[in-house]
């Protein structure tokens, strides 16, 4: 995965992630499976021109979902919690 835009899938915008962005300067992204923290850090710094303090990664297992008698599974997610250094900011909600 040589391209930085292939690593970062999308930002995750929920009430919890917005609160963490305001309080701790932490932004949450969905990333591709198979990437590590170093690749994620380099991709964020390249795309957004910021300095990353540290990266935490969470693998969210798929949950079982039911629709009547049919059973399926939700998608697997790999989330990256990106903490930015002081003085840097990524404004996710600016485009909306």
Number of strands: 6
CATH topology description: Alpha-Beta Plaits
Structural class: alpha+beta
- Could you state the order of secondary-structure elements as H and E? HEHEHEEEE
Number of helices: 3
How would you summarize the topology of this molecule?
Layout: H1 4-7, E1 8-11, H2 15-24, E2 26-31, H3 37-48, E3 52-60, E4 64-67, E5 70-73, E6 77-84
Antiparallel strand pairs: 1-2, 2-6, 3-6, 4-5
Please, could you describe this protein's structure?
- The chain has 96 residues and is α+β, with helices and mostly antiparallel strands.
- The protein has a single domain, classed as RRM (RNA recognition motif) domain (Alpha-Beta Plaits, 2-Layer Sandwich).
- Helix content is 27%, strand content 36%.
- The chain is built from three helices and six strands; from the N terminus they run H-E-H-E-H-E-E-E-E.
- The chain has helices at 4-7, 15-24, 37-48; strands spanning 8-11, 26-31, 52-60, 64-67, 70-73, 77-84.
- The strands form two sheets. It has a four-stranded antiparallel beta sheet. A two-stranded antiparallel sheet has the order 4-5.
- The two termini are 29 Å apart.
């Amino acid at each position: 995965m040589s391209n930085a835009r292939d690593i970062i899938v999308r930002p995750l915008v929920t009430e919890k992630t917005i609160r963490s962005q305001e309080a701790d300067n932490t932004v949450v992204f969905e990333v591709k499976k198979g990437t590590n923290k170093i690749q994620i850090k380099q991709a964020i710094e390249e795309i957004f021109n910021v300095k990353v303090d540290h990266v935490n990664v969470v693998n969210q297992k798929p949950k079982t979902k039911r629709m009547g008698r049919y059973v399926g599974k939700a998608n697997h997610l790999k989330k990256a919690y990106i903490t930015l250094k002081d003085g840097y900011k990524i404004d996710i909600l600016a485009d909306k």
